[in-house]
Known about the structure:
- It is a single chain.
- The strands form four sheets. Strands 19, 20, 21, 22, 23, 24 and 25 form a seven-stranded antiparallel beta sheet that branches. This protein has a six-stranded antiparallel β-barrel with strand order 1-2-3-6-5-4.
- It starts with a helix and ends with a strand.
- The chain is built from eleven helices and 25 strands.
- It has four domains: 44-145, Thrombin, subunit H; 160-262, Trypsin-like serine proteases (Thrombin, subunit H), CATH 2.40.10.10; 272-358, Pdz3 Domain (Roll), CATH 2.30.42; 371-464, Pdz3 Domain (Roll).
- It has helices spanning 2-24, 31-34, 39-45, 69-75, 108-111, 249-262, 279-285, 303-307, 326-336, 389-395, 411-415, and strands at 49-60, 85-99, 103-106, 116-120, 126-135, 140-145, 168-173, 181-192, 203-206, 218-221, 226-233, 244-248, 272-276, 293-298, 314-318, 321-322, 341-348, 351-358, 371-372, 382-387, 403-409, 423-427, 430-431, 449-455, 458-464.
- The chain has 466 residues and is of the alpha+beta class.
Amino acid sequence: MLIRRLFAAALLLLAPAAQAQDRTQAVPASKQQITLTFAPIVKQSAPAVVNVFTERRVQTQASPFFNDPFFQQFFGTDGMGGVPRERVERSLGSGVIVRDSGVVVTNHHVAGTADQIRVVLPDGREFPAKVVGTDERTDICVLQLQDVKGKLPLLELSDSDRLEVGDLVLAIGNPFDVGQTVTSGIVSALARTTAGIGDMRSFIQTDAAINPGNSGGALISSDGRLIGINTAIYSRSGGSIGIGFAIPSNLVKTVVASILKEGRAVRPWIGAVWQSVTPDLAKNLGLARARGAAVTRVMANGPGAKAGLKAGDVVVKMNAHEVSDEQDLRYQLATLGVGGTATLGVNRGGTDVGLTVALQAPPEIPARETRTLVGRQPLSGATVSNLNPALADEIGVAYTEPGVVVNKADSVAARFGLKPGDLILDINGQPVKKVEDLNVPLRESLEGWVITVGRDNRAYKLRVDN
């Protein structure tokens, strides 16, 4: 009798589980239960994703030596081979309408240097476009469509800080010029810094298929809003292998607002130089783990100095967001834009300190005084400027003190290996702090020249005999 009762009790306990299993295995009773589709999101988003066709005229010469003043002494500027030849480079990309007045966001590498731009909407409408501003450092370019009548479809920007690994996303663009294409995937990783496009590297990584022609297109979140601008892929064949990268929408939002207001991207300047905390540095600083950005130098009278920031501080938070390294700090600053303040969480000798720093635009002090150097000397053909914080931000070099930077290197200077971004530190032992300091040491020298060039935090000697 007891066994029979126990068996009956066991059946009663198992009954709910069996019923639950029956419910999960029940035949779907409606179309909604058997249909999973992104169609509503695509219908909402796709009209604002456009095709961007560009043309760029490139002049070439039979020989680069005909740009050299030395050869021009013998052959002149109009000699055979010196006549430039013009060819037209055409490219295709994608873009996203973010203002109904016809403001389009795309990549700098798609349209930033184009001479002619044509934008085609999915409904067949076609508009000429002009570059409002472009930012090579973030690979973002803002276009304004011409002759727009009425309001155009647009995509609202989402908050990319709320994105998580595993979230569903859609990529929309025009790969290989086959027409507008939608692919789906998930967010594979966040804050990727190895995509190799631009130097504000904090990309969204996705396995949604992205191919050539998708650049500048939309990465859409599951609520149908713009979460990123597709910018690059990792591939050995040129096609998608499931590793694509997008610029986060929070950075896009700030850069677009700055370009529309100023005509260029203006980022906050703290007036400090920092480096990522390595395991060895963390050990020396007494930190439990390698995280944050260590301050190596603070400019006098800059926003950081006025806020109380000191060399040796380690920035571990920005407005309550964790700071993983120097790249992450620069990215977070760039998303804040100019104006207002930010709160820095600082580790100072093992003690947590909170600082409030003003988000100011980098100053144009000293004046640039851009000049192209000529004459019989090794820097002939180089265009140089006085380095100031604003110019340093534009070209992506760290500003520590006034100096002379190479903007462009042609002719003799290029043959001697000078590159844009190089700093001219001294010539024949004479320090170079401003463009005027080049006048005397660059004069013809019987002994030749010894030029110290700064590049990637290293100093190189260039010896040129007369």
